[in-house]
Amino acid sequence: MEKILVLDFGGQYSQLAARRIREQNIYAEIKPYTKITVDEIVKEGYKGVILTGGSYSVYDKDAAHYDPAIFEAGIPILGIGYGCQLIAYTAGGKVTYADGGGEYGKVELVSDGSALLDGFPAVSTSWMSHRNYIKQAPIGFAVTAYTEFCPVAAIEDSDRNIYGVQFHPEVSHTEYGELLLHNFLYNICGCKGDWKMETFVEEKIAEYKSMLDGKKVLCALSGGVDSSVAAMLLHKAVGDNLFCVFVDHGLLRKEEADNVERIFRDTFKFNLIRVDARERFLNKLKGITQPDMKRKVISEEFVSVFKEEAAKIGKLNYLVQGTIYSDVIDRGSGDITAESLTAVIDFDDMLEPLRNLFKDEVRRMGQALGIPKDLVWRQPFPGPGLAIRCIGEITAEKLNLLREADAIFRDEIEKTGYDRYTNQYFAVLADIKSVGVHDGERTFGNTIVLRAINSDDFVTADWSRIPYEVLEKASSRITDELKGITRVVYDITSKPPATVEWE
Ligand code: XMP
Protein backbone atom coordinates (compact mmCIF):
# COMPACT_ATOMS: atom_id res chain seq x y z
CA MET A 1 0.00 0.00 0.00
CA GLU A 2 1.42 3.38 -0.95
CA LYS A 3 1.65 5.73 1.96
CA ILE A 4 2.76 9.22 2.86
CA LEU A 5 4.47 10.20 6.10
CA VAL A 6 3.36 13.34 7.90
CA LEU A 7 6.35 14.18 10.05
CA ASP A 8 4.93 16.18 12.91
CA PHE A 9 6.90 18.99 14.52
CA GLY A 10 4.08 19.88 16.93
CA GLY A 11 1.32 22.39 16.32
CA GLN A 12 -2.19 22.09 15.09
CA TYR A 13 -2.18 21.14 11.42
CA SER A 14 -0.78 17.59 11.17
CA GLN A 15 -4.07 15.74 11.53
CA LEU A 16 -5.75 17.99 9.01
CA ALA A 17 -2.93 17.44 6.52
CA ALA A 18 -3.23 13.66 6.99
CA ARG A 19 -6.96 13.86 6.45
CA ARG A 20 -6.54 15.88 3.24
CA ILE A 21 -4.18 13.21 1.95
CA ARG A 22 -6.65 10.44 2.78
CA GLU A 23 -9.30 12.46 0.94
CA GLN A 24 -7.12 12.03 -2.14
CA ASN A 25 -7.24 8.25 -1.67
CA ILE A 26 -3.73 7.91 -0.30
CA TYR A 27 -2.98 6.59 3.14
CA ALA A 28 -1.21 9.01 5.49
CA GLU A 29 0.54 8.21 8.73
CA ILE A 30 1.55 10.79 11.30
CA LYS A 31 4.76 10.35 13.31
CA PRO A 32 6.32 12.82 15.73
CA TYR A 33 9.75 13.88 14.41
CA THR A 34 11.38 12.36 17.47
CA LYS A 35 9.90 8.90 16.85
CA ILE A 36 11.28 7.95 13.43
CA THR A 37 14.75 8.05 11.87
CA VAL A 38 15.67 8.65 8.23
CA ASP A 39 16.70 4.98 7.88
CA GLU A 40 13.30 3.89 9.15
CA ILE A 41 11.54 6.27 6.76
CA VAL A 42 13.45 4.79 3.84
CA LYS A 43 12.80 1.23 5.02
CA GLU A 44 9.07 1.85 5.37
CA GLY A 45 8.94 2.83 1.70
CA TYR A 46 7.00 6.07 2.06
CA LYS A 47 6.23 7.65 -1.30
CA GLY A 48 6.64 11.12 0.17
CA VAL A 49 7.18 13.02 3.40
CA ILE A 50 5.32 16.10 4.57
CA LEU A 51 6.93 18.19 7.28
CA THR A 52 4.29 20.04 9.27
CA GLY A 53 3.62 22.09 12.36
CA GLY A 54 5.87 23.60 14.99
CA SER A 55 5.17 26.57 17.16
CA TYR A 56 8.83 27.48 17.56
CA SER A 57 11.29 29.67 15.74
CA VAL A 58 13.56 27.44 13.70
CA TYR A 59 16.61 29.53 14.65
CA ASP A 60 16.05 29.09 18.43
CA LYS A 61 18.53 26.95 20.33
CA ASP A 62 15.93 24.41 21.42
CA ALA A 63 13.90 24.41 18.16
CA ALA A 64 12.74 21.12 16.64
CA HIS A 65 15.21 20.07 13.96
CA TYR A 66 15.58 16.89 11.94
CA ASP A 67 18.39 14.84 10.50
CA PRO A 68 19.40 16.66 7.24
CA ALA A 69 19.98 13.23 5.67
CA ILE A 70 16.23 13.24 4.96
CA PHE A 71 16.92 15.70 2.13
CA GLU A 72 19.32 13.27 0.49
CA ALA A 73 17.14 10.18 0.86
CA GLY A 74 15.61 10.49 -2.61
CA ILE A 75 12.07 10.78 -1.20
CA PRO A 76 9.95 13.77 -2.31
CA ILE A 77 9.47 16.25 0.52
CA LEU A 78 6.91 18.96 1.10
CA GLY A 79 7.38 21.34 4.02
CA ILE A 80 4.33 23.25 5.19
CA GLY A 81 4.61 26.35 7.43
CA TYR A 82 7.31 25.53 9.96
CA GLY A 83 8.28 22.60 7.74
CA CYS A 84 9.03 25.04 4.93
CA GLN A 85 11.14 27.21 7.22
CA LEU A 86 12.98 24.13 8.44
CA ILE A 87 13.89 23.20 4.86
CA ALA A 88 15.10 26.73 4.14
CA TYR A 89 17.06 27.03 7.38
CA THR A 90 18.69 23.60 7.07
CA ALA A 91 19.72 24.34 3.48
CA GLY A 92 21.39 27.63 4.49
CA GLY A 93 18.57 30.13 3.85
CA LYS A 94 17.71 32.99 6.19
CA VAL A 95 14.70 32.68 8.52
CA THR A 96 13.88 35.64 10.76
CA TYR A 97 11.07 37.27 12.69
CA ALA A 98 8.76 38.64 9.98
CA ASP A 99 8.91 42.38 9.31
CA GLY A 100 5.43 43.62 10.15
CA GLY A 101 4.78 40.75 12.56
CA GLY A 102 3.75 37.93 10.24
CA GLU A 103 0.49 37.07 8.56
CA TYR A 104 -2.65 35.41 9.86
CA GLY A 105 -5.67 34.45 7.80
CA LYS A 106 -6.46 34.89 4.13
CA VAL A 107 -3.86 36.61 1.96
CA GLU A 108 -3.32 37.06 -1.77
CA LEU A 109 -0.68 34.74 -3.12
CA VAL A 110 1.20 35.50 -6.31
CA SER A 111 2.73 32.44 -7.91
CA ASP A 112 4.38 31.37 -11.12
CA GLY A 113 4.91 28.05 -12.86
CA SER A 114 6.16 25.18 -10.72
CA ALA A 115 5.37 21.48 -10.60
CA LEU A 116 3.88 21.98 -7.13
CA LEU A 117 1.76 24.99 -8.06
CA ASP A 118 0.76 23.67 -11.48
CA GLY A 119 -2.71 25.00 -12.33
CA PHE A 120 -2.58 27.90 -9.83
CA PRO A 121 -3.71 31.21 -11.34
CA ALA A 122 -1.24 34.11 -11.05
CA VAL A 123 -3.12 35.39 -8.00
CA SER A 124 -5.09 33.25 -5.55
CA THR A 125 -6.16 33.21 -1.92
CA SER A 126 -4.14 31.27 0.61
CA TRP A 127 -4.23 30.82 4.36
CA MET A 128 -1.28 32.03 6.38
CA SER A 129 -0.37 31.62 10.03
CA HIS A 130 3.21 32.65 10.73
CA ARG A 131 5.20 35.07 12.76
CA ASN A 132 8.59 34.16 11.24
CA TYR A 133 9.35 34.06 7.56
CA ILE A 134 12.02 33.09 5.09
CA LYS A 135 13.86 36.29 4.31
CA GLN A 136 16.20 34.67 1.86
CA ALA A 137 15.78 31.34 0.11
CA PRO A 138 18.72 28.92 0.27
CA ILE A 139 21.05 28.55 -2.70
CA GLY A 140 19.73 25.96 -5.14
CA PHE A 141 16.08 26.73 -4.32
CA ALA A 142 13.78 28.73 -6.57
CA VAL A 143 11.17 31.06 -5.07
CA THR A 144 7.85 30.23 -6.74
CA ALA A 145 5.34 32.33 -4.78
CA TYR A 146 5.16 35.42 -2.60
CA THR A 147 2.61 37.61 -0.83
CA GLU A 148 2.60 41.29 0.08
CA PHE A 149 4.35 40.67 3.39
CA CYS A 150 6.08 37.37 2.68
CA PRO A 151 8.82 37.52 0.08
CA VAL A 152 9.29 33.74 0.05
CA ALA A 153 5.92 31.97 0.22
CA ALA A 154 6.98 28.86 -1.75
CA ILE A 155 10.36 27.34 -2.54
CA GLU A 156 11.54 24.36 -4.50
CA ASP A 157 14.55 22.38 -5.48
CA SER A 158 13.00 20.39 -8.28
CA ASP A 159 16.19 18.36 -8.88
CA ARG A 160 15.93 16.83 -5.41
CA ASN A 161 12.12 17.03 -5.29
CA ILE A 162 12.12 19.22 -2.20
CA TYR A 163 9.28 21.70 -1.91
CA GLY A 164 8.08 24.08 0.76
CA VAL A 165 5.13 26.42 1.22
CA GLN A 166 4.68 28.99 3.94
CA PHE A 167 0.90 28.94 3.52
CA HIS A 168 -1.38 26.07 4.51
CA PRO A 169 -2.77 24.03 1.60
CA GLU A 170 -4.60 21.74 4.04
CA VAL A 171 -6.82 24.58 5.31
CA SER A 172 -9.98 24.95 3.25
CA HIS A 173 -9.53 28.74 2.93
CA THR A 174 -6.55 28.11 0.66
CA GLU A 175 -8.34 28.23 -2.67
CA TYR A 176 -6.07 25.81 -4.53
CA GLY A 177 -4.82 23.81 -1.56
CA GLU A 178 -6.38 20.59 -2.78
CA LEU A 179 -4.75 21.05 -6.17
CA LEU A 180 -1.36 21.66 -4.55
CA LEU A 181 -1.61 18.45 -2.54
CA HIS A 182 -2.79 16.60 -5.64
CA ASN A 183 0.23 17.89 -7.58
CA PHE A 184 2.57 16.79 -4.80
CA LEU A 185 1.02 13.38 -4.22
CA TYR A 186 0.29 12.32 -7.77
CA ASN A 187 2.74 14.24 -9.99
CA ILE A 188 5.74 14.56 -7.70
CA CYS A 189 5.50 11.47 -5.47
CA GLY A 190 3.96 9.36 -8.25
CA CYS A 191 1.12 7.97 -6.13
CA LYS A 192 -1.71 6.16 -7.85
CA GLY A 193 -4.36 6.74 -5.18
CA ASP A 194 -5.39 3.18 -4.45
CA TRP A 195 -6.31 3.68 -0.80
CA LYS A 196 -9.93 3.12 0.16
CA MET A 197 -11.73 3.11 3.49
CA GLU A 198 -12.74 -0.51 2.80
CA THR A 199 -9.09 -1.58 2.44
CA PHE A 200 -8.09 0.36 5.51
CA VAL A 201 -10.83 -1.34 7.52
CA GLU A 202 -9.72 -4.79 6.33
CA GLU A 203 -6.13 -4.06 7.27
CA LYS A 204 -7.11 -2.72 10.69
CA ILE A 205 -9.15 -5.85 11.36
CA ALA A 206 -6.25 -8.08 10.31
CA GLU A 207 -3.86 -6.08 12.50
CA TYR A 208 -6.14 -6.38 15.56
CA LYS A 209 -6.74 -10.07 14.84
CA SER A 210 -3.09 -10.95 15.20
CA MET A 211 -2.42 -8.47 18.00
CA LEU A 212 -5.40 -9.50 20.14
CA ASP A 213 -5.46 -13.23 19.62
CA GLY A 214 -6.99 -14.83 22.72
CA LYS A 215 -7.25 -11.51 24.55
CA LYS A 216 -10.35 -10.19 26.28
CA VAL A 217 -11.51 -6.77 25.14
CA LEU A 218 -14.09 -4.59 26.88
CA CYS A 219 -16.12 -1.82 25.28
CA ALA A 220 -18.77 0.57 26.57
CA LEU A 221 -21.36 0.68 23.81
CA SER A 222 -23.69 3.67 23.92
CA GLY A 223 -25.35 3.15 20.56
CA GLY A 224 -23.80 6.41 19.33
CA VAL A 225 -21.76 6.55 16.14
CA ASP A 226 -18.26 6.50 17.64
CA SER A 227 -18.64 3.68 20.13
CA SER A 228 -20.62 1.62 17.58
CA VAL A 229 -17.92 1.96 14.93
CA ALA A 230 -15.08 1.20 17.37
CA ALA A 231 -16.98 -1.82 18.72
CA MET A 232 -17.79 -3.14 15.25
CA LEU A 233 -14.17 -2.96 14.19
CA LEU A 234 -13.08 -4.90 17.27
CA HIS A 235 -15.93 -7.36 16.97
CA LYS A 236 -14.79 -8.26 13.46
CA ALA A 237 -11.32 -8.87 14.85
CA VAL A 238 -11.98 -10.77 18.07
CA GLY A 239 -15.63 -11.91 17.92
CA ASP A 240 -16.94 -13.09 21.26
CA ASN A 241 -13.82 -11.95 23.05
CA LEU A 242 -15.22 -8.45 22.70
CA PHE A 243 -17.49 -7.82 25.67
CA CYS A 244 -19.80 -4.90 24.96
CA VAL A 245 -21.52 -3.41 27.95
CA PHE A 246 -24.55 -1.32 27.12
CA VAL A 247 -25.91 0.58 30.11
CA ASP A 248 -29.58 1.40 29.67
CA HIS A 249 -29.86 4.41 31.97
CA GLY A 250 -33.44 5.16 30.99
CA LEU A 251 -32.47 8.49 29.47
CA LEU A 252 -32.48 7.32 25.88
CA ARG A 253 -34.99 8.20 23.20
CA LYS A 254 -38.05 6.10 22.46
CA GLU A 255 -37.18 2.50 21.51
CA GLU A 256 -33.48 3.34 21.35
CA ALA A 257 -32.29 0.77 23.86
CA ASP A 258 -34.22 -2.00 22.12
CA ASN A 259 -32.81 -0.91 18.77
CA VAL A 260 -29.25 -1.09 20.06
CA GLU A 261 -29.90 -4.60 21.34
CA ARG A 262 -31.59 -5.66 18.12
CA ILE A 263 -28.81 -4.37 15.87
CA PHE A 264 -25.82 -5.50 17.86
CA ARG A 265 -26.98 -8.68 19.56
CA ASP A 266 -29.52 -10.05 17.09
CA THR A 267 -28.15 -8.85 13.76
CA PHE A 268 -24.43 -8.69 14.36
CA LYS A 269 -24.24 -11.39 17.07
CA PHE A 270 -22.27 -9.28 19.51
CA ASN A 271 -21.47 -10.55 22.94
CA LEU A 272 -23.66 -7.77 24.32
CA ILE A 273 -24.38 -7.22 27.98
CA ARG A 274 -27.43 -4.97 28.37
CA VAL A 275 -27.75 -3.62 31.88
CA ASP A 276 -31.13 -2.32 32.93
CA ALA A 277 -30.08 0.48 35.25
CA ARG A 278 -33.13 2.70 34.78
CA GLU A 279 -34.24 2.59 38.42
CA ARG A 280 -30.73 3.22 39.69
CA PHE A 281 -30.31 6.35 37.61
CA LEU A 282 -33.77 7.68 38.48
CA ASN A 283 -33.05 7.24 42.17
CA LYS A 284 -29.70 8.97 41.91
CA LEU A 285 -31.24 11.87 39.97
CA LYS A 286 -34.05 12.41 42.46
CA GLY A 287 -34.26 16.05 43.59
CA ILE A 288 -31.46 17.23 41.27
CA THR A 289 -32.22 20.28 39.14
CA GLN A 290 -28.78 21.70 38.32
CA PRO A 291 -27.61 20.68 34.81
CA ASP A 292 -23.97 20.23 35.84
CA MET A 293 -25.03 18.15 38.80
CA LYS A 294 -27.17 15.97 36.52
CA ARG A 295 -24.19 15.42 34.24
CA LYS A 296 -21.94 14.59 37.20
CA VAL A 297 -24.38 12.14 38.78
CA ILE A 298 -25.03 10.39 35.46
CA SER A 299 -21.36 10.08 34.69
CA GLU A 300 -20.54 8.71 38.16
CA GLU A 301 -23.40 6.25 38.12
CA PHE A 302 -22.46 5.08 34.65
CA VAL A 303 -18.92 4.44 35.79
CA SER A 304 -20.03 2.46 38.82
CA VAL A 305 -22.51 0.31 36.82
CA PHE A 306 -19.84 -0.32 34.22
CA LYS A 307 -17.27 -1.19 36.86
CA GLU A 308 -19.60 -3.78 38.39
CA GLU A 309 -20.24 -5.38 35.01
CA ALA A 310 -16.55 -5.43 34.12
CA ALA A 311 -15.76 -7.19 37.39
CA LYS A 312 -18.18 -9.98 36.44
CA ILE A 313 -16.23 -10.67 33.24
CA GLY A 314 -12.94 -11.21 35.04
CA LYS A 315 -9.44 -10.44 33.82
CA LEU A 316 -9.51 -7.97 30.91
CA ASN A 317 -6.65 -7.23 28.57
CA TYR A 318 -7.92 -4.24 26.66
CA LEU A 319 -10.42 -1.41 27.01
CA VAL A 320 -11.76 0.09 23.75
CA GLN A 321 -12.68 3.74 23.63
CA GLY A 322 -14.41 5.47 20.74
CA THR A 323 -12.27 8.61 21.07
CA ILE A 324 -12.16 10.51 17.79
CA TYR A 325 -9.84 13.31 16.71
CA SER A 326 -12.16 16.14 17.77
CA ASP A 327 -12.25 14.68 21.31
CA VAL A 328 -8.46 14.76 21.36
CA ILE A 329 -8.15 18.43 20.38
CA ASP A 330 -11.22 19.56 22.30
CA ARG A 331 -9.79 18.60 25.67
CA GLY A 332 -11.76 21.36 27.39
CA SER A 333 -14.93 19.36 26.94
CA GLY A 334 -13.09 16.06 27.50
CA ASP A 335 -15.32 13.09 28.14
CA ILE A 336 -15.16 12.80 31.91
CA THR A 337 -16.93 9.45 31.76
CA ALA A 338 -14.28 7.96 29.47
CA GLU A 339 -11.51 9.30 31.67
CA SER A 340 -13.10 7.94 34.84
CA LEU A 341 -13.59 4.54 33.22
CA THR A 342 -9.91 4.13 32.55
CA ALA A 343 -9.25 4.94 36.19
CA VAL A 344 -11.59 2.33 37.68
CA ILE A 345 -11.34 -0.59 35.25
CA ASP A 346 -8.48 -3.01 35.60
CA PHE A 347 -7.01 -3.60 32.15
CA ASP A 348 -3.58 -3.87 30.55
CA ASP A 349 -3.86 -1.47 27.67
CA MET A 350 -6.25 0.85 25.89
CA LEU A 351 -7.35 0.74 22.25
CA GLU A 352 -8.49 3.91 20.51
CA PRO A 353 -8.92 2.87 16.88
CA LEU A 354 -10.61 6.13 15.82
CA ARG A 355 -8.24 8.54 17.51
CA ASN A 356 -6.87 10.00 14.27
CA LEU A 357 -10.14 10.17 12.36
CA PHE A 358 -12.50 13.06 11.80
CA LYS A 359 -16.23 12.53 12.37
CA ASP A 360 -17.13 12.10 8.71
CA GLU A 361 -14.28 9.59 8.30
CA VAL A 362 -15.66 7.65 11.27
CA ARG A 363 -19.05 7.58 9.58
CA ARG A 364 -17.51 6.33 6.35
CA MET A 365 -15.66 3.67 8.32
CA GLY A 366 -18.98 2.67 9.89
CA GLN A 367 -20.50 2.25 6.46
CA ALA A 368 -17.51 0.22 5.28
CA LEU A 369 -18.05 -2.02 8.32
CA GLY A 370 -21.67 -2.59 7.36
CA ILE A 371 -23.33 -0.64 10.18
CA PRO A 372 -26.83 0.46 9.11
CA LYS A 373 -26.93 3.87 7.44
CA ASP A 374 -29.42 5.42 9.84
CA LEU A 375 -27.13 4.63 12.77
CA VAL A 376 -23.97 5.80 11.03
CA TRP A 377 -25.50 9.10 9.92
CA ARG A 378 -27.59 9.76 12.97
CA GLN A 379 -27.73 13.13 14.64
CA PRO A 380 -25.68 13.83 17.79
CA PHE A 381 -27.25 12.79 21.06
CA PRO A 382 -25.72 13.95 24.34
CA GLY A 383 -24.28 11.40 26.75
CA PRO A 384 -26.58 12.54 29.62
CA GLY A 385 -29.45 12.01 27.19
CA LEU A 386 -32.95 13.19 27.97
CA ALA A 387 -31.86 14.25 31.46
CA ILE A 388 -30.63 17.58 30.08
CA ARG A 389 -33.77 18.00 27.97
CA CYS A 390 -36.11 17.44 30.89
CA ILE A 391 -35.73 20.79 32.61
CA GLY A 392 -35.77 20.81 36.38
CA GLU A 393 -36.21 17.68 38.43
CA ILE A 394 -36.41 14.40 36.55
CA THR A 395 -39.27 11.97 37.15
CA ALA A 396 -40.35 8.87 35.26
CA GLU A 397 -43.59 10.63 34.19
CA LYS A 398 -41.79 13.67 32.83
CA LEU A 399 -39.31 11.48 30.98
CA ASN A 400 -42.15 9.51 29.40
CA LEU A 401 -43.91 12.64 28.20
CA LEU A 402 -40.69 14.00 26.75
CA ARG A 403 -39.80 10.70 25.10
CA GLU A 404 -43.19 10.53 23.36
CA ALA A 405 -43.19 14.19 22.26
CA ASP A 406 -39.64 13.80 20.95
CA ALA A 407 -40.61 10.68 19.00
CA ILE A 408 -43.55 12.51 17.38
CA PHE A 409 -41.43 15.49 16.38
CA ARG A 410 -38.69 13.29 14.94
CA ASP A 411 -41.27 11.21 13.11
CA GLU A 412 -42.80 14.29 11.45
CA ILE A 413 -39.39 15.68 10.48
CA GLU A 414 -38.27 12.36 9.04
CA LYS A 415 -41.56 11.60 7.28
CA THR A 416 -41.41 14.87 5.41
CA GLY A 417 -37.72 14.44 4.57
CA TYR A 418 -36.69 17.48 6.59
CA ASP A 419 -34.04 15.49 8.40
CA ARG A 420 -31.89 16.13 5.32
CA TYR A 421 -32.02 19.87 5.93
CA THR A 422 -31.43 20.04 9.64
CA ASN A 423 -28.52 18.67 11.68
CA GLN A 424 -30.09 18.12 15.08
CA TYR A 425 -33.74 18.14 16.08
CA PHE A 426 -35.39 17.17 19.33
CA ALA A 427 -37.97 18.08 21.96
CA VAL A 428 -37.39 19.61 25.37
CA LEU A 429 -39.80 19.44 28.29
CA ALA A 430 -39.73 22.93 29.80
CA ASP A 431 -40.26 23.45 33.49
CA ILE A 432 -43.21 25.75 32.75
CA LYS A 433 -46.89 25.07 33.29
CA SER A 434 -49.42 27.04 31.32
CA VAL A 435 -53.19 27.25 30.94
CA GLY A 436 -54.94 25.33 28.20
CA VAL A 437 -58.47 24.43 27.17
CA HIS A 438 -59.56 20.82 26.90
CA ASP A 439 -63.18 19.80 26.12
CA GLY A 440 -64.27 23.30 27.09
CA GLU A 441 -62.55 23.00 30.46
CA ARG A 442 -59.56 25.06 31.53
CA THR A 443 -56.54 22.88 32.27
CA PHE A 444 -53.04 23.50 33.49
CA GLY A 445 -50.44 21.56 31.55
CA ASN A 446 -46.84 21.11 30.43
CA THR A 447 -44.91 22.95 27.75
CA ILE A 448 -42.94 21.19 25.04
CA VAL A 449 -40.22 23.08 23.20
CA LEU A 450 -39.26 21.92 19.74
CA ARG A 451 -35.69 22.65 18.71
CA ALA A 452 -34.02 22.11 15.33
CA ILE A 453 -30.67 23.54 14.32
CA ASN A 454 -28.33 23.73 11.36
CA SER A 455 -24.64 23.50 12.08
CA ASP A 456 -21.42 22.05 10.66
CA ASP A 457 -19.51 21.82 13.89
CA PHE A 458 -22.09 22.50 16.66
CA VAL A 459 -19.85 25.30 17.92
CA THR A 460 -22.15 27.78 16.24
CA ALA A 461 -25.62 26.95 15.01
CA ASP A 462 -28.58 28.56 13.31
CA TRP A 463 -32.17 27.63 14.06
CA SER A 464 -33.68 25.58 11.23
CA ARG A 465 -36.41 27.12 9.11
CA ILE A 466 -38.73 24.13 9.39
CA PRO A 467 -41.91 24.77 7.34
CA TYR A 468 -44.94 25.83 9.36
CA GLU A 469 -46.88 22.83 8.03
CA VAL A 470 -44.40 20.39 9.59
CA LEU A 471 -44.38 22.29 12.89
CA GLU A 472 -48.17 22.49 12.86
CA LYS A 473 -48.52 18.74 12.36
CA ALA A 474 -46.01 17.97 15.11
CA SER A 475 -47.70 20.42 17.49
CA SER A 476 -51.22 19.10 16.95
CA ARG A 477 -50.09 15.49 17.23
CA ILE A 478 -48.22 16.21 20.47
CA THR A 479 -51.20 17.94 22.11
CA ASP A 480 -53.71 15.40 20.74
CA GLU A 481 -51.77 12.26 21.57
CA LEU A 482 -50.18 13.25 24.86
CA LYS A 483 -52.31 14.01 27.83
CA GLY A 484 -50.84 16.72 30.01
CA ILE A 485 -49.26 18.85 27.28
CA THR A 486 -51.13 22.07 26.61
CA ARG A 487 -48.56 24.10 24.77
CA VAL A 488 -45.91 23.54 22.09
CA VAL A 489 -43.37 26.23 21.18
CA TYR A 490 -40.58 26.38 18.60
CA ASP A 491 -37.15 27.67 19.65
CA ILE A 492 -35.94 30.35 17.20
CA THR A 493 -32.61 31.19 18.84
CA SER A 494 -29.28 30.57 17.24
CA LYS A 495 -26.01 29.68 18.95
CA PRO A 496 -24.69 32.05 20.15
CA PRO A 497 -26.34 33.52 22.17
CA ALA A 498 -28.21 30.29 23.03
CA THR A 499 -26.67 26.84 23.17
CA VAL A 500 -28.07 23.88 21.26
CA GLU A 501 -29.28 22.11 24.38
CA TRP A 502 -31.44 23.81 26.97
CA GLU A 503 -29.31 22.68 29.89
P1 XMP B 1 -24.45 22.92 23.22
O1 XMP B 1 -25.68 22.75 24.03
O2 XMP B 1 -23.21 22.97 24.05
O3 XMP B 1 -24.34 21.62 22.32
O4 XMP B 1 -24.53 24.07 22.26
C1 XMP B 1 -23.39 21.42 21.30
C2 XMP B 1 -23.46 19.96 20.92
O5 XMP B 1 -23.00 19.15 22.01
C3 XMP B 1 -24.03 18.28 22.47
N1 XMP B 1 -23.98 18.27 23.94
C4 XMP B 1 -23.50 17.26 24.68
N2 XMP B 1 -23.00 16.07 24.31
N3 XMP B 1 -22.68 15.51 26.58
C5 XMP B 1 -22.60 15.19 25.27
O6 XMP B 1 -22.14 14.08 24.95
C6 XMP B 1 -23.18 16.69 27.03
O7 XMP B 1 -23.25 16.94 28.22
C7 XMP B 1 -23.61 17.60 26.01
N4 XMP B 1 -24.15 18.85 26.06
C8 XMP B 1 -24.36 19.23 24.77
C9 XMP B 1 -25.31 18.86 21.93
O8 XMP B 1 -26.31 17.86 21.76
C10 XMP B 1 -24.87 19.48 20.62
O9 XMP B 1 -24.79 18.51 19.58
> Helix count?
15
Using the coordinates shown, work out and report the CATH topology of the largest domain: Rossmann fold
Helix content percent band: 25-40%
CATH class of the largest domain: Alpha Beta
Sheet with most strands: strand arrangement: 2-1-3-4-11-10-9-6-7
CA-based shape? globular
Taken as a percent bin, the fraction of beta residues is 15-25%
Number of domains: 3
Specify the biggest β-sheet.
9 strands, mixed
Query: Which homologous superfamily in CATH is the superfamily of the largest domain?
Result: Class I glutamine amidotransferase (GATase) domain
Unreliable parts: none
Radius of gyration: 27 Å
Which hetero compounds are present in the coordinates?
A: xanthosine-5'-monophosphate
Average pLDDT level: 94
User: Using DSSP, what is the number of strands?
Assistant: 20
Distance from first to last alpha carbon: 48 Å
From the helix content, strand content and strand pairing, which structural class follows?
alpha/beta
Task: Identify the CATH architecture of the largest domain.
Answer: 3-Layer(aba) Sandwich
